[in-house]
Request: fold
Amino acid sequence: MAGSTPASAIASETPLEAPVAAVQAAASARGISPWRDAWRRFRRHKLAVASVFVLGLMVLAVLFGPLVWKLAINEIDFSARLKPPAWRHPFGTDDLGQDIFARMLYGGRISLAVGLAAMGMAILVGVTIGAIAGISRGPIDTALMWLTDLFLSLPQLPLLLLLIYLFRDGLKAAFGPEVGVFMLIVCVIGGFRWMPVARLVRAQFFSLREKEFVEAARALGASTSRQVVRHILPNALGPVIVAGTIDVAAAIIAESTLSFLGLGFPPDIPTWGRILYDSKEYLDIAPYWAMFPGAAIFLAVLCINFIGDGLRDALDPRDVL
Amino acid sequence: MGSYLLRRLLIALPSLLGISVVLFTVLALAPGDPFAEMALNPNVPPEVQANLRKQFGLDDPIWQRYFRWLWAMVQGDWGFSFISRVDVDSLILQRVPVTLAVIGASQVIALMVALPVGIYSAMRPYSWFDRIASALAFVGFSLPTFFTGLLLILLFSIKLDWLPFVYRADIAATGWQWWWEHLRQAIMPVMVLGLFQGASWTRYVRSAMLDVIRLDHVTTARSKGLSDWDIVMKHVVRNALIPVVTLVALQMPAIFGGAIVTEQIFRIPGIGSLLIDAILRNDTPVIMGVTFVFSCLVILFNLIADLLYGWLDPRISYR
Amino acid sequence: MQERQIRESIEEVRSGRLPRRTFIHQMVSLGLTAPMASMLLMHAGVANAQPAQAYKPTKRGGGGALKALWWQGATLLQPHFANGTKDQEGSRIFYEPLGSWDRDGNLVPILAAEVPTRENGGLSADGKSVTWKLKRGVTWHDGQPFTADDCLFTWEYAKDPATAAVTSGVYKDVKVETVDSHTIRVTFAKATPFWATAFVAAEGMIIPKHLFGPYAGARSREAPNNLKPVGTGPYKFVDFKPGDMVRGEINNNYHMPNRPYFDTIEMKGGGDAASAARAVLQTGEYDYAWNLQVEDEVLKRMEEGGKGKAHIIPSGDIEFIQLNLTDPWTEVDGERASIKSKHFAFTDPAVRQAMALLADRAGIQQFIYGRTGVATANFLNNPAKFRSPNTKMEFNVDKANALLDAAGWKKGADGIREKGGKKMKFVYQTSVNGIRQKEQAVIKQACQKAGIDLELKSVTASVFFSSDVANPDTYGKFWCDMQMYTTTMTQPDPERFMDQYRAHEISAKANKWQGRNIARWRNDEYEKVYAQAEAELDPVKRAALFIRMNDLVVGDNAIIPLISRPRVRGASHKLMTALTGWDLDFSGLHNWYREA
Reply:
């Protein structure tokens, strides 16, 4: 069973070599830093490593692809409408004759950036609040949970309209139109996804802080923050990682919902969620139009999940090599 | 635990009040005008619009409107919709049965899928079952509901013509026929929502189970020779359920206003579509009514979850 | 000149050389409405045409259920409180007016015994009053008789400001009196050539005095019949769930013989246009769907299923672009887009002309709208006879480039033109709508080729079309350089419609941006011609003046008409409807039937 604690470090080796190997293992274990140890464990997880490559490839493609693939993203060519994938248009064309491959490369920057940034923000805020609430009791916990409940009850749509209407012009003036809108969207999407993470982390903390190893650390004189950071948090990360993967997909999709409402990026910016949305009425006429952005989102989510799995295995302090 | 419960309930009231203040302020500040369509119609003189706004007190300062609303709520009057000219509570009550039936059923299905699949995947990680289940789960939550809904409609309604896709709350039939018709029209939306939800829950269940399975007490049980079933059911599941309970509690209130896209696609007259219509038309009393119930449910279910933690893991104490 | 041509055409219709329908089409294409054209003919004494469609069923009822899909559900069923057409349609199932407009713009009597004309004494010689004779033997759904008192009551109810009825604009300037139990007289303050406003069409539905009487004025919103309509219509009320469902059953005492055909009617709301189209055209779950704003490509594909087809019905709606003549980016006296400011580019007529040349109407029509739109350069298609020399439907990027070069707008290093240090970068806004976003993309590309950079903006429809004073994104404020939407001629008479281009209607802070002159266009000649038209009693001369005003507006290029949008409805093959582009879809509901 993956990740289970073997009965001993040398369970699989022959009895004769056992003592020698044990000594050697102990010796080398002393000299390796925990980060290199983690990296080594991560490397063992083949799927995670493969995912790093694939994700890296996607990032490179969207960053540098448009420099190589020169077709414009909004070249409207009515004579080439709804053409299936071919050499000229590897992903086919949409109903205005625009090249889908070029659009996916361009929009991928935004989708991936939004997905990762929003997830990052949700996790950061959620873990912080959840940890503080989980380790403290009484008034702080209650106050933070009240805040969480408040955010959970807020109706997202009116709040979105309000925020965008209040801050859009200011951000655009300060950071330029694209970056301003990007920041606003990341904050808005991330801002609505930290609550489940906070509650999950808090719940984990509740059960973990009573466990023996934490008691042991406390007995040894570890300060609260040390207990949290070095002992409890790493074990609480399981649901956080799952939340992270789900959040990436949700963020990309949320961005397309925002565009649909006219609140996100301008309508001609082909983020993946937007392409998916544009294609939905043509599913029976041009299925490839929807397949590619769907597959791209799926692939990104898959990679992040495996990387998350690998991270969890790598950081698991009980996994002794 | 009793005193904890009492304390939480006492705190619930002021927190509800606080939430309602914030909600009301947000709605009051958000752009949009409930009588917008009148502006487009040259037949409607501006005085009529102004008169309506005065009638509904839209031009009063925010704090005045808030207290008026609060006082009315306390007396049981939930307000009057600007757009439909109907009482808010009857609007909501009209839609509760359908919402519970469809959205509620989908949450149950999600749970019924997530628990067994997640548990079994965790028992045999990286096996074929696990890989396929995980892949399907990824597909499940990477695709937006408007997309999967449309796919199902194309397949089952249009190509195969097996199922109707427009939901009708009143079907003129009785007995078995009535149940059968309702089932036919509810399958697709329930599946779309349930599987979307179930996909992410499966991942959480699996992850939580894996976390617990690697603990020492499980190894001990295994070394004692207990069967897999016993180990899982008696030792692992209760501990692993904590994140699941958290999530289910978080998701329960969403029945009351969360499944907006699915309700749109299948035209289900649930509370989600009531909310989105009210929001797009700036019908503040309806929005306040629905979101207020929503926040009550949020507080209630999170309280239940907190109490359940104690039952699931006896080491969690309440002070 | 055009006046003479109009008179000639009328004579041709009278003598039978020109089909009535063609005349109506021609008038419509010049910017008039079919009802107005029909009134032109009536005024000249040309007889009203017989209704084109024959009603086949020979008995009442037996038709089963009629299921209709409105993707915006009705939220109330009181016609004088209606928020938009969906509520009017819901109400129209149960309530009726005295007369309605059919497809060719004929006034068809419903609760009136006949159409008032000069010959039968209905119209007074001085044009100041109309006498309507009501049908006898008509009863409300609860059995009470329908009389002139109900009409009188409806007038008092609607004009009372305390009621806050949305139809008050039609009733507040007229006087209604009962002549006897089944005759009323409507009197206008001054001679009114277009008299068919009160008690006609959507704003003309009559409500029962015996039920609404106790709830007039400030108590109007408490009336229980606001939610349980009792009318004279072909169907009786059964059930209503706001925003979701309206149900009715056959009215066995309906005042027209052999009608209605269907036993029950259901009007379901919610969802979007594309899925409504699917429900009718592909799965046949519903018989009729309203307003299919879907790309023609997709519609055609759906029709291949063979269960239904899309009906395209001519009407007066036009999709157009407005160019802002003021500067929306600077504040003058605390007001953006103030009339005191000038737009740096659009006040140059050469630039406006170039913009008009950059609209690829043909492409938009062919590939986006298909059958559901007709490319237009004027406020509609022109037959050669009436075409103004200056309005052409041309798409010519090179010409636009040449014009801009000649006017001094030189291309900079980034390919964007500039003059006096200001670049041609414009913000172009419209509402969120798949088809509109595609139109924006097409226009953007053409502009790019001419060295103009457009930033596209789309605003949620409920915000864009609202009149919220605090919101900067409404179409009324027009705080950007260009915007696009469809203008509907909800009024059968263009006078109110043309009023919006006058200086006093300019949308500004002073009138809370409720003014309808959103492009903030001013033209002295237009003011003169309008003043003339207002005082003109001869409807033919008046029509000619309106055409002239139309030309002025379009010729100046502050408005760039793109597509004329007929109404698109979906109906199953067997359903025979009586649809019109000049009144509600359900105005002919009593004539709908299903072929065997």
Q: What stands out?
A: Chain C touches chain B through 61 residues (CB under 8 Å).
